[in-house]
Each structure stands twice: as C-alpha cells, then as structure tokens.
Amino acid sequence: MNKKQLASQLAWRSGMSRVRANELLTMLFDADDGIFANELVEGGKVTLPGFGTFVTKERAERIGTNPSTGTRITIPSRIAAYFKAGKTLRARLDS
Which domains does the chain have, with CATH numbers? Predict the structure, then answer.
C-alpha cells in the first residue's frame, strides 16, 4: 500500500476528504519534517499500542567487502530506524 492508497482508506473510513487525509499523513510521516521523523531524529521512540514501536539504534562500525573489487572496507557506524511489531499485530500475523 502506498501513501495515495493509505490516504484513500483513511478518507473513506473517517469521512474526511482525501486531500485532508493526505495532509494528515504528511504531518505524521514526512521524512523531512513529520512528527514521527522528528521524534526519531531527537532520539525518541514512537509507540502505537498494539501496532508496534518505531525506535532508532546505533549500528556499530564493521568490516565489509566491496562487491565490485573484493577489497575489505570499513563501514562506519550509523543510526538506523527499526520497527518492532506489537503483541496484537504479531498475533494477527501469526494466525
């Protein structure tokens, strides 16, 4: 499901316009200035009970191999976003 489809579903279920639904999704999920992204960039987490939690973790520096040349390279540490499914969502996925 893409953003346009998600906005259509949100509009249909809530009775709001698709334009308004798209605006709300942008406010929540925009990578540059969305509520979720801002919270994660600041080191916080976003928890949606039953659905799951979005968090950031630091990935350690590691040694890798350049696939083109086969030479060993150092891959620097970085911050990555992760999602952990909540109990309710996990149960639905398992059934």
Answer: 47-95 (4.10.520.10)
C-alpha torsion 67→71→76→77, nearest 10: 70
Query: Which residues have a Cβ under 8 Å from the Cβ of 14 and sit 6 or more positions away?
Result: 21
**Model confidence pLDDT, tens digit, residues 17-61:** 999 999 999 999 999 999 999 999 999 999 999 999 999 999 999
Reduced 3-state DSSP string for the chain: CCHHHHHHHHHHHHCCCHHHHHHHHHHHHCCCCCHHHHHHHCCCCEEECCCEEEEEEEECCEEEECCCCCCEEEECCEEEEEEEECHHHHHHHHC
